[in-house]
Amino acid sequence: MAHAAQNESNSYERTHFTSELQKLQTGTEVRVAGWIEDFRDIGKLGFIILRDVTGLVQAVLVGENLQKAKSIPRQSNILLKGVLQGTKSKNFPFEIKVEEVFVFSPASLSLPVDPTGRVESNLDTRLDSRALDLRNPKISNIFIIRSNVLKLIRDFFLENKFIEVNTPKIIGSASEGGSNLFSFDYFKRKGFLAQSPQLYKEQLVLALDRVYEIAPFFRAENSHTLRHLNEFLSVDLEAAYLDYYEIMSIVEELIKKILMHLRDSNNIESENSLIRGNALNDLISNPFPKISYEKCLDELNRLGEKVTFGDDLSDSSLKKLGEKYDKFYFIVDWPLSLKPFYIHEKESHPTLSKSFDLQFGYLELVSGGTRQHDVSKLKSRLVEQGLSPESFRDHLRVFEWGMPPHSGCGLGFDRLMMVLLGLSNIREAVLYPRDTSRISP
Amino acid sequence: MAHAAQNESNSYERTHFTSELQKLQTGTEVRVAGWIEDFRDIGKLGFIILRDVTGLVQAVLVGENLQKAKSIPRQSNILLKGVLQGTKSKNFPFEIKVEEVFVFSPASLSLPVDPTGRVESNLDTRLDSRALDLRNPKISNIFIIRSNVLKLIRDFFLENKFIEVNTPKIIGSASEGGSNLFSFDYFKRKGFLAQSPQLYKEQLVLALDRVYEIAPFFRAENSHTLRHLNEFLSVDLEAAYLDYYEIMSIVEELIKKILMHLRDSNNIESENSLIRGNALNDLISNPFPKISYEKCLDELNRLGEKVTFGDDLSDSSLKKLGEKYDKFYFIVDWPLSLKPFYIHEKESHPTLSKSFDLQFGYLELVSGGTRQHDVSKLKSRLVEQGLSPESFRDHLRVFEWGMPPHSGCGLGFDRLMMVLLGLSNIREAVLYPRDTSRISP
């Protein structure tokens, strides 16, 4: 530990994580701390298998320490002081000869879920006891990977000259349509929880050129599915002077960097066979297909779906597309009428828009496009969509201050993790998911 | 630009940021984009000073391009295509001989604030037009530094084996007292906006050992000061097996890393003379003083303040302390009665607690401590503070699953930026601040 107590002595000072022991020599004195995964008593000797966040270690006990260990419930939190020695065990390259056992916290004898994962529990029970559920390394690994992928994304943005921004989560008007916003009393006014940083990130390219944000956003939608949550982590970017094809290149490069990271990390075992082994290498080395909305319609009608221009793609249609394009692919050039007011029309085909979604099979992961930066066109589009330019006054005036052309996108991070790790429910990728029926713990 | 359009040609393809031009040779063809900071017409020649997020460049125009330039309002967003050449200007090492001027967005002739900073506006006017205010490089620089400091903090945590977590911002009970929480309807139940990740980060050390989060939190306090906001960015950490002295070491090391970064970044001009020049070097090389609460009382009473044991330190007291200790210092070992239920008592003096605040002058920046991990003591402390253990049921049960001893702290990031950059109002450090009277833009 780098930080020794300078004042009162810290009785629980651990010297090493279990994963750090293999670098040490036999005979080294160590203090490791963690949870009793298992205890075996074979008479004169006893063995504790101790788990910490980095792995497992075996410890051997005799005499008084063995007697003490017999009375400690499994999954209790303890510190073992001892010396590294060789072992006859087939499962461990070395063991700790215990000199002292210190119990920090005894565990209850009846635990709501089995943290070793031997006894399976259903997801609801696990989420009710999430902290204990995370003791299972298969589960904690999801969140260690999540943390690493977030770092990778931020580094990628900084390399590409994006500035990290923090936009407000409390907003004063239910601007983007607004039916899906949580609302509350904000000092005698009405406040809303932001659903996305869309308007703010567009405003910020006025001066900061390229911005990104990774932050929680909120959607009051009353539906319960395996791929939606009411609070979610969104990765948003916006960039001046780039168009939607350039944003797609950025997104594709980013996703491939993440895939390479997954491939090169030994501790990753994606259960998603689509992004494992050779399939993973193929994904990394080939461009993601780009399919126009109109081509999607042709294919879907050939497959018996009745879809006409201007229809949104239903779950059923997306499932059919997802069978053919079962990995990452872009759907580009959506009808303008299906897209929000801030999306730019295609000059060559004004009923189409400069827009894209990145899909994985039937799941939408990213939505983006070139933005309209001509304020008079923005106003017409608002009116077309039944929205009032007056309620967007604060936003529209920014476009009269020399707004550069710009493009951007938003990526649903929890859903991306779900896809990357082959999880069948988005709740598996979130520590404390929020849905219509779950608001605690 | 790394990402060329693959489909329709992108008419606004910039080749370089202005700061990248100095690496190029005379004669290179470039396309730069930005805002017209200034235009001078001297007859047969004209000069545009173009600003982008990285700096300024001078461009010289003749003939048709000069005629066109005369009609473009200042602060309009344009692209200049041209060739690098030498210059007679004293202010620029080279200039762009313009071949083509492309106007993306004309700026309005009457701007609400002057983005060159020559005409000053009051803060409210600036915040009402924040996007334009940010065109002033003195202002945008605050947020570029903010972005860099966030990266530094995250890298520091990862080096120290902290896992990034995302805890929920929507919570189901107004647990920590709760009078300061925004509340709203959440699918026929009551939901609240989290004020801190305190309970969640403690729960997560049960399995993840060391966690950190940088996220927005919310406080419904109806007060209007220069140092509080109702939405703020908090840096939170929690670590198993560390005590509060070790957390103070981590905090001090982190703050010093940030100070070194400020010192070594050429573009930083802190207006805070306390952390500039020699004062900055002194701060980096000397330990932050640690003063006990009881010693603070002695000093304050000597200075004429009437404070007795158990009193919180009033604004007036903190201002007096801040005159003597005018930079970073810790106040340690606060009375247990002043601290939340989750703070650990000092075994040697049970009326005191294992707690600390990091101050800068009279401003509190960080609050932290060793946590109570004994569930029966936690329950007594709740009752002592008039809170109901039953309403903390979800939280308390985690302590029966083998909870390690742990410590942590929370740092108010906006306030830290305020101190580091010598800003007199926290609103200067936040893009779109939220207070009792401001919820837009």
UniProtKB/TrEMBL annotation, chains A, B:
Alphabetical list of CDD domains matching this protein: AsxRS_core (cd00776)
Aspartate: region residues: 198-201
Listed transmembrane segments: none
Site annotation Important for tRNA discrimination: residues: K90
Signal peptide range: none
Leading EC class: ligase
Keywords: Aminoacyl-tRNA synthetase, ATP-binding, Cytoplasm, Ligase, Magnesium, Metal-binding, Nucleotide-binding, Protein biosynthesis
Pfam family, one: tRNA-synt_2
Binding-site residues for Mg(2+) 2, renumbered to this chain: E364, S367
Subcellular localization, as worded in the UniProt entry: Cytoplasm
GO CC annotations, alphabetized: aminoacyl-tRNA synthetase multienzyme complex; cytosol
Family matches, as HAMAP family: Asp_tRNA_synth_type2
Oligomer status and interactors: Homodimer.
Protein family according to the UniProt entry: Belongs to the class-II aminoacyl-tRNA synthetase family. Type 2 subfamily.
Protein name: Aspartate--tRNA(Asp) ligase
Originating organism: Candidatus Nitrosocosmicus oleophilus
Gene: asnS_2
